[in-house]
Amino acid sequence: MKIKINNVEYSAKIGETILDVCKRERIRIPTLCAYKNLNREAVCRMCLVEVNKSDSLVTSCSFKVCGGLEVTTESERIQKARKVSLELLFADHAGKCVKCRKNRRCELQNLAEENKIDNFHFVPKKDEIGSADELDLLKDNRSRLVFEDNNRVITRTTEYCISCRRCVNVCPTQEFGLSRRAADTVVGTPYGKELDCIFCGACVRACPTGALTDHGDIVKAQDELDNLNKLAVAIVDETVLRNIADEIGGLPAGDVSGEVIGYLHELGFEKVFSLSFGLGKWIESAKEKMENRKRPIISDYCPSVAIYVKKYFPSLADNLLGVPTPDDIMARYIKNEYADKEKIDADNIVVISISGCLAKRKTKGRYLDHVMSPSQIGRMVRVKKIGKVEKGKFDHLAKEDMHPDAYSMNRKGGVANALSSGISDARAASGIKDIKRILEDMDRGNAEYDFADLMVCDGGCENK
Amino acid sequence: MDNIKIITEHWDKIDPKKIADYVAVGGYETLRKFVCEADPASALQEIKKSGLLGRGGAGFPIGDKLELVASSNKKEKYFICNLDESEPGTYKDREIAKNNPHLLIEGIALASLIIGAKKAFIYLNGNYEEEEEILECALSQSIENGFIGEGILGSEYGLEMEVFQGAGAYICGEETALLNSIEGRRGEPRLRPPYPTDKGLWGHPTAIGNAETVSNFPWIIKNGGAEYSRIGSADSPGTKLYTLGGSVKNTGIFELPTGISIRDLIQKSGGGMMLGKEFWFAQIGGASGRLVLENELEEKLVLKKGAKIPLGSGAVLVVDKTVDIHDMILSWTGFFRRESCGKCVPCREGTFRLFEIAKRMNNGKMSERDKAAVSDILWALENTTFCPFGKFSATAFRDTVEKLNISNS
Amino acid sequence: MKPVTVEKILLEFDPEQGNILPVLKRINAAFGYVSETDAKKMADYFSVSLSHIFELASFYSLIGTKKDSDIVIKICSGTNCTVQGSSCLIAEVEKYFGIKAGDEFNPKVRLEVISCLGRCGEGPIMMVNGRIYTKVTVSGARDILENME
After folding, report:
1. Using one digit for the tens of pLDDT, what is the confidence trace for C94-114?
2. Nearest to A44 among B191, B345, B369 (CB)
3. Residues in C touching A432 (Cβ below 8 Å)
4. B310 shares its domain with B341
5. CB-based contacts of C144, cutoff 8 Å, min separation 6
6. Which residues of A fall within a CB distance of 8 Å from B386?
7. Residue B314 sits in the same domain as residue B363
8. Which of B285, B320, B355 marks a domain boundary?
9. What is the average per-residue pLDDT within A278-291?
10. How far apart are CA B14 and CA B123, in angstroms?
């Protein structure tokens, strides 16, 4: 059918929403609660538009197209609606951006700046607070504060939460829910328990603000890099080079490995190795392990899978491949063979792996000091105010070969492919729904295959 | 005609715990006739002809709603009687359940059979514990006597009816939030469309009617819709249970035709102002209702859409000049701040900030920032929220600002 | 009298979604609130996540998720009760105990301002540990609190 948007005709299919059409035709409509292909909640009210079928503003994320529909996406009314909603949300955020981990990377902040809002429209500035009972009113707001940072992977604070519900809907094991009602609503875990999930990090990736971020103290990390007595070593997963570049900002398109390595050197990393060495070793290790493993084998290349199996299908724990992550293998090599060769005391080496994977932080072994995300590297670069850098090159551990199947293991079915010589029949699955089905099959003894290549992130590893 | 009592006719005259009392005054006769004649289409026409508008607050023509479900060819349908009644100042539905539960049950049965529903719910306010007992007792007696259950009075008709109690949330009076509540979800409203008449309880066509609305069905089907349409005001006919409260001599529930003036209600039924109290303003329709001043007391109380002063639930609160307006403002803003479901940004945050500002107003500390903020919050609540709760929460505050002369220091 | 247990309550209901709220109310009525342990049993019985049960339990005013204070006082601040003087009552109770309405962290006493109970003709309404008092005056409130045990 044909519909009109801002007086221009466009084609639209039955069942589509106004937002679907606008996305396709690259007409900008701001959104905060819409995320990927999750069910539309229509709670943030950012996507309001005017239509000829209604006197009131309607949410474009939920309004289905129909014959004769005419849509206006910009008007005074719409702009006012956005502004007021943003200002209401910003009442909990005003003045806090500089200290927040998502500063300059926050969807709320971006929209606030784009719409030129008054950050303090609904909340008094500190110097305006006269008396104790006014402070009390601000405290009323704080009573919904929940802060959790004990699990080494995900830092959670409701202070920055805008209740967009993305995390609630994206979590594969329903760890989050809403609690209470009205302005007391907090998004969090039931009974305030500490997160004890599979740490896949989908929630962190989905969160538009600083409510859910990846754990880590970049100040401490920078101190370790600055320490002249320590050899700082970076392991870089090459699939996230572009992510690191984007977080640092201002880098050209195409191959940016040289520039990224340059920045890492400026941060204080003396050596920068590619994860490819670890991937190759992982494949070797896995092939050996497979010979004696109980069939069907469950690949735990994805560390989240290992956590999931041990928690929800403990009877299948013995089927897990049981090989440490490539990052762990490399870190161990660095602190043993490499340290020996270079005649460095292993205690004086700091190994930091840069990866998009969050679960690795939960399962990491003792040789790997930290796992950091591209966004954390980006923040460290900004804090250090690093300007232009000299391009660098990867260092090499003793005679490493880039195994041809190494990085393809991140794709669905890739691990089974890399280990194919030891497998007669494999199943591949991504996403918890399909993983659960396969494991339930296995549990009942119905599995006719001998290898299950499982990835928790939908569509395969996030580091694609 | 003016004195006709459709709903309260037998109050205080029959024992709600004795079904025989109700039957003795002609109760369940309409249901008996209905299952004998087995002509739901005609019965539906009578309800449409009556012009009966919903008496929960929204004022939607109930005949149209029933027709939408009746005409659906889906097999599974539901009827739900909305007795959540959480609008402050309103307790008429509670009195119906307490004084003549069988009238309600008969009305629900008729509505359910008209639309082809095999199961009906009475969604009861979670605080109404006494009424829950009375309704359960009445239901079991009704089943014993064959008025509800399989093979009603020996006919092919069957109807299951059950009481479902809410758990303390005003928003669950909203139709889609009510559905979510029954389905074991948070009582948050749903996106519309689809409407409950299309996809309601568990996704099936559902008609939801207020208890007072439903209590009119037996009379309408017995005496005909045309007869009903002659009562009261032409565009929102029938009688209405007015809940009169505040600084009048006689507070209480009064059944009177629609279309009477506010002044008449206050003077004739309420007996005028309490001794020594001077009329300041009245609020029509509960906490979400509009305010009227002395010079508006001639306005007629009607339910139709677009009425200048919508009657809403029928609650009329008379406020005298000794009442501190800040107490009222705190009552209004506090109520909506507490009862917002919390789903959408403008309502969740807007009602919260409005209440904060009301507290500052009460302390005489309203700032220039607050004044600008009020205007924006009210606008957002009236124009950008997920459901009509936003509009409700803004009405009284806006009327206070625009109609009453209060100084904001 | 046989003791009530969560298991016994659950067995009275089919594990259908429509029974989740009624079961929550029954558990709340029996034990005063729905604990994490009981919520877990419910989650298993109804095949939903613990998050889902907690979402429900914490949404509704009449269901608690933790043990309440020893004394719970609720005063209606609906429009009618306000006209009849409920704000003075609230101030009186706050003064009497030296507490603030809405404070949830005092294990001895909690004062909650509630929405309309539907007894608007008999206001102001005050509830003390579940017992409803009507047409409560400031001095009447003091009497009730002093005589309460």
Report:
1. 999 999 998 888 999 999 999
2. B345
3. none
4. no
5. C126, C128, C133, C136
6. 42-43, 45
7. no
8. B320
9. 92
10. 24
Residue type, B63: G
On whether both B123 and B139 belong to a single domain, the answer is yes
DSSP C51: H
Considering the domain architecture, whether residues B218 and B360 belong to the same structural domain is answered as no
Q: What DSSP letter does each residue of B108-150 carry, written as one string? A: HHHHHHHHT-SEEEEEE-TT-HHHHHHHHHHHHHHHHTTSSBS
Would the CB atoms of C18 and B247 count as touching at under 8 Å?
A: no
Beta-carbon count within 10 A of A278 CB: 28
Q: Best mutation site among B383, B385, B392 for testing chain A: the one with the most A CBs within 10 Å?
A: B383
Closest by CA to C29, choosing from C16, C37, C38, is C38
Chains adjacent to C (≥3 CB pairs closer than 8 angstroms): A, B
Q: CATH code at B338?
A: 1.20.1440.230
CA distance A59 to chain B (A): 9
Q: What is the CATH number of the domain that holds B275?
A: 3.10.20.600
Q: What is the DSSP letter of A32?
A: S
Q: Are residues B179 and B283 in the same domain?
A: no
Residues 24-53, chain C: which have Cβ within 8 Å of A? Answer: 36, 39, 49-53
Identify which of B343, B376, B384 has the shortest CB distance to residue A57: B384
Give the chain A residue nearest C104 (alpha carbons): A143
Please give the residue range of the domain that contains residue B378: 325-402
Q: B121 and B66 in one domain?
A: yes
- The two beta strands, A349-354 and A370-372, are parallel
- CA–CA dist B332, B328 (Å, integer): 6
Residues B54 and B139 both lie in one domain: yes
Contacts 24+ apart (CB under 8 A), B350-353: B350/A88, B350/B377, B350/B380, B350/B381, B350/B385, B350/B390, B350/B393, B351/A182, B351/A183, B351/B381, B351/B393, B352/A141, B352/A182, B352/A183, B353/A88, B353/A91, B353/A122, B353/B377
* Burial degree of C37 (CB within 10 A; 0-12, 13-18, 19+): exposed
- The number of beta carbons lying within 10 Å of the beta carbon of residue B296 is 18
Residues of A in contact with B384 (CB under 8 A): 45, 48, 57, 81, 84-85
B361 and B246 within one domain: no
Interface contact flag, B380 A88, Cβ < 8 Å: yes
Cα dihedral value C48, C6, C23, B340, nearest 10: -80
Domain assignment present for residue B2? The answer is no
Using the predicted structure, report yes or no on whether residue A30 has a pLDDT greater than 90: yes
Residue of chain C with shortest Cα separation from A181: C59
Write out pLDDT tens, residues A346-364: 999 999 999 999 999 999 9
User: ipTM strictly over 0.85?
Assistant: yes
Instruction: Classify residue C33 by burial, with Cβ atoms within 10 Å: 0-12, 13-18, 19+.
Output: middle
Look up the pTM and report it.
0.94
% of residues, chain B, pLDDT over 70: 99
**Is C54 touching B (CB cutoff 8 A)?**
no
Q: Looking at residue B126, which CATH number applies to its domain? A: 3.40.50.11540
Give the end of a domain, one of B230, B247, B267. B230
- CA nearest to A177 within chain C: C51
- The tally of CA atoms less than 13 A away on the side-chain side of residue A394 is 17
Residue type, B341: C
Element (H, E) at B98: helix B92-99
The total number of structural domains that make up chain B: 3
Task: Please state whether beta strands B315-320 and B279-284 pair in parallel, antiparallel, or not at all (unpaired).
Answer: antiparallel
User: For the ranges A113-122, B93-102, B171-180, B381-390, which has the lowest average pLDDT?
Assistant: A113-122
Please give the C-alpha separations between residue A51 and each of A79, A162, A318, in angstroms, as whole numbers: 15, 27, 59
Q: Beta strands of A162-236 (E only): which ranges?
A: 177-179, 186-188, 212-214, 231-236
Question: What's the rounded Cα separation, in Å, for the pair C112 and C68?
Answer: 12
Q: Does residue B191 lie in a domain region?
A: yes
